[in-house]
């Protein structure tokens, strides 16, 4: 049977190591997982209640038009309902957008060390994945992106994780604005901002993407309920874009791509502002704790706008990851992102953060 080389050479996405597996492997009772940028507070109690009630309705197909969810989302973010759609996590949206805008032989581009889903989804669609330059602080170069797009007309999409996972760096408003302005009249390229961590951003010059959507038709935004809303297990992402793209997206997606519980949960989740505020505060306090402790221990890190932190281990991150596992701490090695000497740590509860810092500090300095 013929299988294309792009499929044969696919390296499957490596998720964070599950807690149960780590307990079994190392005979541990207590394991702390800070590996997948999940919300340490879990679901909002309002979401738990709504989902529990919705269990009675699961013999029905979910609403393929997202009626309630779309209405709630549009009101919440002051957007038109015609510019919103949803996917089975942002991951499905990334996959479908590449299928929508590209065909085999085309290319997409993202700055170096970007979220790995772009590359995997491109490869599945036989689309080439290209990387633009970043500086020593991992900040994407807009000039590099623009130059590559100018030279290579096979490039149809730019993916910008803003803030980026796993580095935690963000693209400031003036840079994004310059990129969009330069590409405004280029009908060959769309720019996608993947704002999975937008709720955690503290930088004052972070762009307002929802405003930019009104101005630039070839600009699309992806949001997720997996991080700040704590719904990673329910799978829900949102696509915000010009109605012409939303219309095409709705034609190619599976009609029942978002299950009923996810739709019900998101409506309740958007309504719980306190839970979101608690989640933000936990992350901000946690990051400040890590900054203080790692600085004092002379261990360098990358300042983060997400709910995670990239730490420079000064030695092989994979080794450190394995040693930390034996201590009951699951972190994320990032060698597959071209960062072999770093570990990514998700911000957890204060107790989890203390355990993480103490273990990692000990391992780095041993
Ligand atoms: C976690 C993450 C997502 C979220 O993916 P889902 O499929 O919505 O769970 C999207 N983009 C980036 C950059 C992420 O880190």
Radius of gyration: 20 Å
Based on secondary structure, the structural category is: alpha/beta
Residue-averaged pLDDT, rounded? 96
Binned strand content: 5-15%
Helix tally equals 14
Q: Which of globular, elongated, flat, extended, rod-shaped describes the shape?
A: globular
Q: Provide the list of bound ligands, each named once.
A: pyridoxal-5'-phosphate
Question: What's the count of strands?
Answer: 13
Span from first to last CA?
Answer: 52 Å
Oligomeric assembly: single chain
Question: Order of helices and strands, N to C?
Answer: HHEHHEHEHEHEHEHEEHHHEEHEEEH
Taking pLDDT < 50 over at least 5 consecutive residues as the criterion, the unreliable ranges are none
Largest sheet: 7 strands, mixed
Instruction: Estimate percent helicity.
Output: 40-55%
Strand order of the largest sheet: 2-8-7-6-5-3-4
Topology (SSEs and partners):
Elements: H1 5-8, H2 19-26, E1 32-33, H3 45-54, H4 67-77, E2 84-87, H5 89-101, E3 107-111, H6 117-124, E4 128-132, H7 142-151, E5 155-161, H8 173-183, E6 190-194, H9 209-215, E7 219-224, E8 237-240, H10 243-252, H11 260-271, H12 273-296, E9 301-302, E10 308-312, H13 317-326, E11 329-330, E12 332-333, E13 342-346, H14 350-365
Parallel strand pairs: 1-11, 3-4, 3-5, 5-6, 6-7
Antiparallel strand pairs: 2-8, 7-8, 9-10, 10-13, 12-13
Helix pairs in contact: 3-11, 4-11, 5-6, 12-14
The chain binds pyridoxal-5'-phosphate.
